[in-house]
Design brief:
single chain; 202 residues; alpha+beta; six-stranded mixed β-sheet; 5 helices
Length: 202
């Protein structure tokens, strides 16, 4: 499958699974997607009112995996309402830095995917000492419109602070898209390497 065919709404299928998969977010080398559920005869996240009441974690894989292994099925573009909820315009990586830690560091040295995150509210999901994800915390942009990188990091540090101890072992810092919580974009806190990339690194 050609990477140029990947966009929100692209439907593809892996050879080991007959169920079609639908792209919700395609950012750089990441694909986040929904899955067709035969018992519902529909997409798993089709009921927007229902998913606005839950915490949703998207399926995620590398775009290169889709390109190498998947077959294009068709295009099923996201509706305006789906775009409003899923926000395919938001990046997978909101903040990423190898030389900072969650406990200290100079935000001016940040290397960010974008200097602004264009959303007025979101959920941040901290991690515990054992690496598990803790409940999300809702945060709002000071200007009511968007988060600057420094503001997002400051608020993420406050969210993560109570879960830090000497046993916490992540290198660097990172804020990555995970899905939705109560209809708002959700981002998980981690190290400079996302959970996906850390899990697939050889």
């Amino acid at each position: 499958m050609d990477l140029s065919q990947l966009e929100p709404g692209t439907v593809f299928r892996f050879p080991h699974d007959e169920r079609p998969l639908r792209v919700l977010v395609h950012d750089s080398n990441i694909v986040m997607y929904d899955c067709w559920w035969p018992h519902l005869d529909g997409w798993g996240l089709a009921d927007l009112e229902q998913i606005k009441r839950k915490r949703i974690t998207y399926y995620v894989t590398a775009a290169s995996t889709v390109a190498d292994q998947a077959a294009l099925v068709r295009s099923d573009p996201l509706s305006d309402d789906e775009r409003t909820v899923h926000r395919p315009d938001l990046p997978f990586v909101a903040v990423q830095a190898t030389d900072l830690t969650w406990s200290s560091g100079d935000p001016a040295r940040l290397v960010a995917a974008d200097s602004r995150l264009q959303v007025p509210q979101l959920y941040l999901l901290p991690f515990g000492p054992g690496g598990g994800t803790k409940p999300g915390i809702r945060v709002s942009a000071d200007n009511g419109s968007f988060f600057t990188t420094d503001e997002l990091l400051r608020k993420a540090r406050a969210v993560q602070a109570e879960h830090l101890n000497k046993a916490t072992a992540v290198d660097g810092i990172g804020i990555y898209r995970s899905g939705l919580q109560r209809g708002l974009p959700a981002f998980y806190l981690w190290g400079a390497e996302s959970r996906l990339h850390r899990g697939t690194r050889h």
